[in-house]
Amino acid sequence: TGLWNRVNEALFAGGDFRVHRVALGNQSLVVAIRGKWSFTDEEAIAQIQKILEVEREFWHDHDFPYYLVTLKPYGVRSGSSDGSAFTNAFWLYLGGDSFSYDVQYLLAHEGFHAWNPHRMGVMKELGVSEKWFAEGFTVYYADVLLLRAGLLSLPEYVERVNRRIRDYESSPVKNLTNKEIVARIVALWLDAQIREQSKNKLSLDAVMLTLARQGTENPLVELSSERVLRVAGKYLNRTSRKTLLRLVEEGASVPIPDFPKNPCIRLATEELPLFDLGFDGDVLRSKKLVAGVREDSEAFKAGVRDGQEVLGVSVNWGDVSKPVRLTVRAVSGQLRIEYFPKGKTVSVPQYRTDEEAWTLTPERCTFQFN
Question: Is the domain of 135 the same as that of 258?
Protein backbone atom coordinates (compact mmCIF):
# COMPACT_ATOMS: atom_id res chain seq x y z
CA THR A 1 0.00 0.00 0.00
CA GLY A 2 1.07 3.58 -0.56
CA LEU A 3 0.30 6.88 -2.17
CA TRP A 4 -0.93 6.75 -5.76
CA ASN A 5 1.52 9.45 -6.83
CA ARG A 6 4.36 6.99 -6.06
CA VAL A 7 2.93 4.64 -8.69
CA ASN A 8 2.14 7.48 -11.07
CA GLU A 9 5.79 8.59 -10.88
CA ALA A 10 7.27 5.10 -11.24
CA LEU A 11 9.75 4.02 -13.92
CA PHE A 12 9.00 0.97 -16.08
CA ALA A 13 11.67 -0.39 -18.42
CA GLY A 14 11.90 -3.28 -20.86
CA GLY A 15 14.05 -4.42 -23.74
CA ASP A 16 17.56 -5.78 -24.27
CA PHE A 17 18.98 -4.53 -20.97
CA ARG A 18 21.81 -6.22 -19.14
CA VAL A 19 20.33 -6.37 -15.63
CA HIS A 20 22.63 -6.33 -12.60
CA ARG A 21 21.48 -6.72 -8.99
CA VAL A 22 23.98 -5.49 -6.42
CA ALA A 23 23.95 -4.37 -2.79
CA LEU A 24 23.61 -0.74 -1.77
CA GLY A 25 24.08 -0.79 1.96
CA ASN A 26 21.55 -3.34 3.20
CA GLN A 27 19.22 -2.73 0.27
CA SER A 28 19.01 -3.80 -3.37
CA LEU A 29 20.24 -1.75 -6.31
CA VAL A 30 19.19 -2.80 -9.80
CA VAL A 31 21.22 -1.35 -12.68
CA ALA A 32 19.90 -2.00 -16.19
CA ILE A 33 22.36 -1.17 -18.98
CA ARG A 34 22.08 -1.34 -22.72
CA GLY A 35 24.46 -0.35 -25.50
CA LYS A 36 28.22 -0.62 -25.98
CA TRP A 37 30.57 1.61 -24.03
CA SER A 38 34.29 2.19 -23.51
CA PHE A 39 33.74 1.38 -19.82
CA THR A 40 32.57 -1.94 -18.41
CA ASP A 41 29.23 -2.50 -16.73
CA GLU A 42 31.12 -3.07 -13.48
CA GLU A 43 32.87 0.32 -13.75
CA ALA A 44 29.53 2.06 -14.33
CA ILE A 45 27.93 0.26 -11.38
CA ALA A 46 30.84 1.24 -9.09
CA GLN A 47 30.35 4.94 -9.93
CA ILE A 48 26.60 4.72 -9.41
CA GLN A 49 27.02 2.90 -6.08
CA LYS A 50 29.53 5.45 -4.76
CA ILE A 51 27.37 8.47 -5.53
CA LEU A 52 24.16 6.91 -4.23
CA GLU A 53 25.91 5.79 -1.03
CA VAL A 54 27.15 9.35 -0.38
CA GLU A 55 23.63 10.67 -0.87
CA ARG A 56 22.06 8.14 1.48
CA GLU A 57 24.67 8.98 4.10
CA PHE A 58 23.88 12.67 3.66
CA TRP A 59 20.16 12.09 4.22
CA HIS A 60 20.71 9.43 6.92
CA ASP A 61 18.18 7.44 4.96
CA HIS A 62 18.60 3.89 3.65
CA ASP A 63 14.90 3.08 3.67
CA PHE A 64 14.47 2.00 0.05
CA PRO A 65 12.99 -1.44 -0.70
CA TYR A 66 14.79 -1.27 -4.05
CA TYR A 67 16.39 1.26 -6.34
CA LEU A 68 16.52 1.12 -10.14
CA VAL A 69 18.91 2.93 -12.46
CA THR A 70 18.68 2.51 -16.23
CA LEU A 71 21.54 3.55 -18.49
CA LYS A 72 20.94 3.95 -22.22
CA PRO A 73 22.76 5.64 -25.11
CA TYR A 74 21.36 8.51 -27.10
CA GLY A 75 20.57 7.62 -30.70
CA VAL A 76 23.27 10.05 -31.82
CA ARG A 77 26.57 10.30 -29.96
CA SER A 78 26.47 14.06 -29.31
CA GLY A 79 28.44 14.14 -26.06
CA SER A 80 25.29 15.24 -24.20
CA SER A 81 23.72 13.49 -21.23
CA ASP A 82 20.27 13.61 -19.70
CA GLY A 83 18.29 12.01 -16.91
CA SER A 84 15.09 12.11 -14.92
CA ALA A 85 14.07 10.95 -11.44
CA PHE A 86 11.14 8.69 -10.57
CA THR A 87 9.93 6.80 -7.51
CA ASN A 88 12.97 4.87 -6.22
CA ALA A 89 14.53 5.14 -9.68
CA PHE A 90 16.01 7.31 -12.38
CA TRP A 91 16.95 6.89 -15.99
CA LEU A 92 20.23 8.05 -17.46
CA TYR A 93 20.92 8.74 -21.13
CA LEU A 94 24.53 9.17 -22.23
CA GLY A 95 25.81 10.61 -25.47
CA GLY A 96 29.50 9.95 -24.80
CA ASP A 97 31.77 7.09 -23.81
CA SER A 98 33.09 8.11 -20.38
CA PHE A 99 31.94 8.84 -16.86
CA SER A 100 32.99 12.47 -17.11
CA TYR A 101 32.08 15.21 -14.65
CA ASP A 102 28.87 15.81 -16.60
CA VAL A 103 27.77 12.21 -16.06
CA GLN A 104 28.79 12.18 -12.40
CA TYR A 105 26.92 15.44 -11.89
CA LEU A 106 23.84 13.99 -13.58
CA LEU A 107 23.96 10.94 -11.30
CA ALA A 108 24.27 13.11 -8.21
CA HIS A 109 21.54 15.47 -9.41
CA GLU A 110 18.95 12.83 -10.28
CA GLY A 111 19.79 10.75 -7.20
CA PHE A 112 19.24 13.80 -4.97
CA HIS A 113 15.73 14.14 -6.37
CA ALA A 114 14.81 10.93 -4.55
CA TRP A 115 14.56 13.19 -1.48
CA ASN A 116 14.18 16.66 -2.97
CA PRO A 117 11.30 16.75 -3.67
CA HIS A 118 10.08 13.14 -3.50
CA ARG A 119 10.55 12.59 0.26
CA MET A 120 9.72 16.11 1.41
CA GLY A 121 5.96 15.87 1.05
CA VAL A 122 3.41 16.32 -1.68
CA MET A 123 3.50 18.97 -4.37
CA LYS A 124 0.09 19.64 -5.85
CA GLU A 125 1.89 20.46 -9.08
CA LEU A 126 5.53 21.14 -9.88
CA GLY A 127 4.93 24.74 -10.89
CA VAL A 128 7.42 27.58 -10.99
CA SER A 129 6.76 28.44 -7.35
CA GLU A 130 8.19 25.08 -6.22
CA LYS A 131 10.57 24.24 -9.05
CA TRP A 132 12.95 27.01 -8.00
CA PHE A 133 13.66 24.98 -4.86
CA ALA A 134 13.35 21.42 -6.20
CA GLU A 135 15.73 22.12 -9.09
CA GLY A 136 17.88 25.02 -7.92
CA PHE A 137 18.88 23.57 -4.55
CA THR A 138 19.49 20.18 -6.18
CA VAL A 139 21.88 21.81 -8.66
CA TYR A 140 23.78 23.30 -5.71
CA TYR A 141 23.96 20.04 -3.76
CA ALA A 142 24.97 17.85 -6.71
CA ASP A 143 28.40 19.52 -6.77
CA VAL A 144 28.62 19.62 -2.96
CA LEU A 145 28.08 15.85 -2.79
CA LEU A 146 30.60 15.14 -5.56
CA LEU A 147 33.10 17.09 -3.46
CA ARG A 148 32.18 15.09 -0.36
CA ALA A 149 32.54 11.85 -2.34
CA GLY A 150 36.05 12.81 -3.41
CA LEU A 151 35.04 12.92 -7.08
CA LEU A 152 35.79 16.66 -7.23
CA SER A 153 38.87 18.29 -5.72
CA LEU A 154 38.38 21.57 -3.87
CA PRO A 155 39.79 23.67 -6.77
CA GLU A 156 37.52 21.79 -9.19
CA TYR A 157 34.54 22.41 -6.94
CA VAL A 158 35.39 26.11 -6.67
CA GLU A 159 35.49 26.40 -10.46
CA ARG A 160 32.05 24.76 -10.72
CA VAL A 161 30.67 27.28 -8.24
CA ASN A 162 32.34 30.12 -10.15
CA ARG A 163 30.64 28.96 -13.33
CA ARG A 164 27.26 28.99 -11.58
CA ILE A 165 27.96 32.54 -10.44
CA ARG A 166 28.91 33.62 -13.97
CA ASP A 167 25.75 32.01 -15.35
CA TYR A 168 23.69 33.88 -12.76
CA GLU A 169 25.36 37.24 -13.32
CA SER A 170 24.88 36.98 -17.09
CA SER A 171 21.31 35.71 -16.94
CA PRO A 172 18.54 37.99 -18.22
CA VAL A 173 16.26 36.55 -15.49
CA LYS A 174 18.59 37.13 -12.53
CA ASN A 175 16.12 39.59 -10.97
CA LEU A 176 12.97 37.58 -11.61
CA THR A 177 11.32 35.43 -8.96
CA ASN A 178 10.98 31.64 -8.91
CA LYS A 179 13.85 31.00 -11.31
CA GLU A 180 15.98 27.89 -10.93
CA ILE A 181 19.18 29.67 -12.03
CA VAL A 182 18.63 32.18 -9.21
CA ALA A 183 17.86 29.48 -6.62
CA ARG A 184 21.29 27.91 -7.15
CA ILE A 185 22.90 31.11 -5.87
CA VAL A 186 20.27 31.58 -3.16
CA ALA A 187 21.35 28.14 -1.87
CA LEU A 188 25.01 29.27 -1.86
CA TRP A 189 24.09 32.44 0.05
CA LEU A 190 21.81 30.62 2.49
CA ASP A 191 24.42 27.96 3.24
CA ALA A 192 26.98 30.67 4.04
CA GLN A 193 24.52 32.59 6.24
CA ILE A 194 23.61 29.56 8.34
CA ARG A 195 27.26 28.59 8.74
CA GLU A 196 28.22 32.10 9.83
CA GLN A 197 25.32 32.61 12.24
CA SER A 198 25.77 29.18 13.86
CA LYS A 199 29.56 29.64 14.07
CA ASN A 200 29.93 26.78 11.59
CA LYS A 201 27.99 24.32 13.74
CA LEU A 202 25.16 24.10 11.19
CA SER A 203 24.74 24.54 7.46
CA LEU A 204 22.07 24.37 4.76
CA ASP A 205 22.09 20.63 5.44
CA ALA A 206 19.91 21.32 8.50
CA VAL A 207 17.18 22.85 6.33
CA MET A 208 17.21 19.99 3.85
CA LEU A 209 17.16 17.32 6.56
CA THR A 210 14.31 19.05 8.41
CA LEU A 211 12.18 19.17 5.25
CA ALA A 212 12.85 15.48 4.56
CA ARG A 213 12.09 14.50 8.17
CA GLN A 214 8.79 16.38 8.04
CA GLY A 215 7.91 14.62 4.80
CA THR A 216 8.66 11.23 6.34
CA GLU A 217 6.60 11.93 9.44
CA ASN A 218 3.68 13.24 7.40
CA PRO A 219 3.80 12.11 3.74
CA LEU A 220 0.76 14.28 2.96
CA VAL A 221 2.37 17.55 4.09
CA GLU A 222 2.60 19.99 1.19
CA LEU A 223 6.02 21.02 -0.11
CA SER A 224 5.49 24.68 -0.86
CA SER A 225 7.67 27.76 -1.11
CA GLU A 226 6.11 29.05 2.11
CA ARG A 227 7.15 25.90 3.99
CA VAL A 228 10.70 26.01 2.63
CA LEU A 229 11.09 29.65 3.70
CA ARG A 230 9.56 28.95 7.11
CA VAL A 231 11.99 26.10 7.82
CA ALA A 232 15.00 28.07 6.53
CA GLY A 233 13.99 31.05 8.65
CA LYS A 234 14.48 29.03 11.84
CA TYR A 235 18.22 29.05 11.19
CA LEU A 236 18.53 32.76 10.36
CA ASN A 237 18.44 36.01 12.28
CA ARG A 238 15.73 38.57 11.58
CA THR A 239 17.78 40.56 9.06
CA SER A 240 18.69 37.47 7.04
CA ARG A 241 15.08 36.23 7.07
CA LYS A 242 13.99 39.52 5.50
CA THR A 243 16.80 39.28 2.94
CA LEU A 244 15.81 35.71 2.03
CA LEU A 245 12.22 36.83 1.41
CA ARG A 246 13.45 39.63 -0.85
CA LEU A 247 15.66 37.24 -2.81
CA VAL A 248 12.90 34.69 -3.37
CA GLU A 249 9.75 36.79 -3.58
CA GLU A 250 11.01 40.10 -5.00
CA GLY A 251 13.91 39.01 -7.20
CA ALA A 252 16.53 41.08 -5.40
CA SER A 253 20.12 40.49 -6.54
CA VAL A 254 21.80 37.71 -4.55
CA PRO A 255 24.96 38.92 -2.73
CA ILE A 256 27.83 36.48 -3.26
CA PRO A 257 29.11 35.47 0.20
CA ASP A 258 32.65 34.83 1.33
CA PHE A 259 33.62 31.19 0.97
CA PRO A 260 32.79 29.39 4.24
CA LYS A 261 35.66 29.14 6.73
CA ASN A 262 38.50 28.33 4.37
CA PRO A 263 41.85 30.18 4.52
CA CYS A 264 42.81 29.01 1.03
CA ILE A 265 39.90 30.63 -0.83
CA ARG A 266 39.11 34.32 -1.18
CA LEU A 267 36.37 36.24 -2.93
CA ALA A 268 37.45 38.75 -5.60
CA THR A 269 35.73 40.84 -8.25
CA GLU A 270 37.06 40.26 -11.74
CA GLU A 271 36.40 41.66 -15.19
CA LEU A 272 35.26 38.69 -17.27
CA PRO A 273 33.61 38.12 -20.63
CA LEU A 274 30.18 36.57 -20.30
CA PHE A 275 29.21 33.44 -22.19
CA ASP A 276 27.34 34.42 -25.35
CA LEU A 277 26.36 31.76 -27.87
CA GLY A 278 25.39 34.55 -30.25
CA PHE A 279 22.06 33.06 -31.30
CA ASP A 280 19.03 31.27 -29.84
CA GLY A 281 20.22 28.27 -27.81
CA ASP A 282 16.71 26.92 -27.23
CA VAL A 283 16.06 26.69 -30.98
CA LEU A 284 19.45 25.04 -31.44
CA ARG A 285 18.61 22.35 -28.89
CA SER A 286 15.02 21.75 -29.93
CA LYS A 287 15.12 22.11 -33.71
CA LYS A 288 18.81 21.86 -34.66
CA LEU A 289 18.48 25.17 -36.49
CA VAL A 290 20.18 28.55 -36.24
CA ALA A 291 17.89 31.46 -35.37
CA GLY A 292 18.24 34.91 -33.85
CA VAL A 293 21.89 35.50 -34.76
CA ARG A 294 23.10 38.90 -33.53
CA GLU A 295 25.39 40.79 -35.85
CA ASP A 296 27.61 42.01 -32.99
CA SER A 297 28.34 38.45 -31.81
CA GLU A 298 31.39 36.24 -32.32
CA ALA A 299 29.05 33.70 -33.90
CA PHE A 300 28.09 36.12 -36.67
CA LYS A 301 31.74 37.09 -37.25
CA ALA A 302 32.58 33.38 -37.68
CA GLY A 303 29.88 32.84 -40.31
CA VAL A 304 26.83 31.65 -38.36
CA ARG A 305 23.63 32.80 -40.09
CA ASP A 306 19.89 32.44 -39.52
CA GLY A 307 18.33 29.44 -41.20
CA GLN A 308 21.38 27.19 -41.22
CA GLU A 309 20.65 23.55 -40.40
CA VAL A 310 22.91 22.27 -37.63
CA LEU A 311 24.36 18.86 -38.49
CA GLY A 312 26.81 18.67 -35.57
CA VAL A 313 27.44 20.76 -32.47
CA SER A 314 29.85 20.97 -29.54
CA VAL A 315 29.09 23.59 -26.88
CA ASN A 316 30.54 23.83 -23.38
CA TRP A 317 27.69 25.86 -21.97
CA GLY A 318 28.84 28.72 -19.75
CA ASP A 319 32.54 28.23 -20.58
CA VAL A 320 34.07 31.00 -22.71
CA SER A 321 37.50 29.33 -22.70
CA LYS A 322 36.36 26.46 -24.94
CA PRO A 323 35.31 26.99 -28.56
CA VAL A 324 31.86 26.38 -29.98
CA ARG A 325 32.11 24.00 -32.92
CA LEU A 326 29.30 23.75 -35.45
CA THR A 327 28.79 21.81 -38.63
CA VAL A 328 26.00 23.48 -40.60
CA ARG A 329 24.31 23.14 -43.94
CA ALA A 330 24.29 26.54 -45.68
CA VAL A 331 23.36 27.75 -49.18
CA SER A 332 26.97 27.29 -50.24
CA GLY A 333 27.13 23.74 -48.85
CA GLN A 334 28.33 22.13 -45.65
CA LEU A 335 30.45 24.37 -43.38
CA ARG A 336 32.47 23.84 -40.23
CA ILE A 337 32.47 26.86 -37.94
CA GLU A 338 34.46 27.48 -34.77
CA TYR A 339 34.52 30.48 -32.44
CA PHE A 340 34.90 31.42 -28.78
CA PRO A 341 31.54 32.43 -27.27
CA LYS A 342 32.71 35.63 -25.60
CA GLY A 343 30.20 38.39 -24.96
CA LYS A 344 30.42 41.70 -23.15
CA THR A 345 32.84 42.14 -20.25
CA VAL A 346 31.34 42.70 -16.81
CA SER A 347 32.44 42.73 -13.16
CA VAL A 348 31.75 39.29 -11.66
CA PRO A 349 32.44 37.98 -8.12
CA GLN A 350 34.63 34.88 -8.24
CA TYR A 351 36.30 32.61 -5.71
CA ARG A 352 40.04 32.20 -6.09
CA THR A 353 42.08 29.32 -4.66
CA ASP A 354 45.52 29.94 -3.17
CA GLU A 355 47.30 27.45 -5.43
CA GLU A 356 50.51 27.47 -3.37
CA ALA A 357 48.67 26.68 -0.14
CA TRP A 358 46.62 23.98 -1.89
CA THR A 359 49.80 22.37 -3.24
CA LEU A 360 51.93 22.60 -0.10
CA THR A 361 49.38 22.22 2.71
CA PRO A 362 46.12 20.82 1.29
CA GLU A 363 44.97 19.80 4.79
CA ARG A 364 44.54 23.52 5.63
CA CYS A 365 42.20 23.87 2.65
CA THR A 366 39.80 21.08 3.56
CA PHE A 367 36.15 22.08 3.24
CA GLN A 368 34.32 21.68 6.54
CA PHE A 369 31.10 19.68 6.27
CA ASN A 370 28.34 19.58 8.85
Answer: yes
Q: What is the pTM of this model?
A: 0.82
Q: Are residues 136 and 215 in the same domain?
A: yes
Q: Are 180 and 140 in contact (CB under 8 A)?
A: no
C-beta of residue 31 within 8 angstroms of C-beta of residue 69: yes
Q: Both 306 and 210 in a single domain?
A: no
Cis, bond preceding 117 (omega within 30 deg of 0): yes
Cβ-based burial of 13 (10 A; exposed 0-12, middle 13-18, buried ≥19):
middle
Beta bridge partners of 356: none
What span, in angstroms and rounded, lies between the C-alpha atoms of 326 and 101? Answer: 23
User: Each residue of 137-184: pLDDT tens digit?
Assistant: 999 999 999 999 999 999 999 999 999 999 898 888 888 887 889 999
> Angle at the Cα of 271 (from 267 to 277), degrees rounded to 5?
115
**Which residue segment(s) compose the domain that 149 sits in?**
128-266
Q: Which helix (H) or strand (E) holds 281?
A: helix 281-287
Query: What is the total count of domains within the chain?
Result: 3
- The answer to whether position 369 is within a domain reads no
